[in-house]
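Deliverable D5.2: sample structural annotation.
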Amino acid sequence: MSAVPGQTDQPSDRPPTHRRPSNPQYRGRFAPSPTGPLHLGSLVTALASWLDARAHGGQWLVRIEDIDYPRCVRDADRQILHTLERLGLHPDEAPVWQSRREPLYADALHRLEAAGLVYPCGCSRKEIADSLRHVRERHQTLAYPGTCRGGLHGKLPRAWRVRVPDGEAALLCFDDRWQGRQCQDLATELGDFVLRRADGLWAYQLAVVVDDGLQGITHIVRGADLLDSTPRQIHLQRLLGLPTPAYLHVPVVVNEIGEKLSKQTGAEAIDALAPLDALRAAGAHLDLRSGRADVAGWLAEATAQWAARWVAS
């Protein structure tokens, strides 16, 4: 593996799937960031997305989201893929790495720039915080105030932001399969958001929208911590002429004090040598139970339970 995160070969000679999907209209994905090994929180998302694809007879893909280079851990991508394999969660196509797809994000940004939908921003985080101080004192929602919408005013460009609508057009709503109806006012709750950061790295919002569109993703199953990002992504999908997938956001796993389980909050790595134990723990969070003592049998029962709950008859 090279020094750049994500530049690894496929970790196994195993074929990418053990069955051929029968529903070509369903394409789901699991998109982990290689900031550490797979833990229970990320496994819940992986399992839910895999079960939803299998219950619908669709395809399940894996995408390594490794463009936030400072946070990526060497060989974590290989560890994640190995753990998924041990758990019986095999993708239907070879995994892809975002770090190999940066020209696609540049092309999308150029298209938005040509349409006048993005602009360079010269604001530092401190300047934005200072400009919002009076808003904070009035207990109003914080959002980027659009300081650079009309030009840089002598500042050097730092980041690129996309314009969001104003007024009634700013309200964006969607129906989540688990969480129900969701609405966000892009103007008052968020403001123009970053697509390319001041450090030159691509923002998650742009990369994920481009990848989901180009990979033909029709259904996205992920953690509820990303629920707030969804209106931004739908806004970008519309600007880029991409279809909007169906969304399902599963409840996140939390620790004993209510914090989202993550590497930063002490999440332990999944034991790839005890795959059934890991699947049972993740299944319990999704209210799935099976008495089977083998991985294949457990996954089959869990898929049937998921289908009964989430697939229309």
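Annotation notes: The CA atoms of residues 256 and 265 lie 10 Å apart. The radius of gyration is 21 Å.
The annotation will be released with the project's public dataset once the embargo ends.
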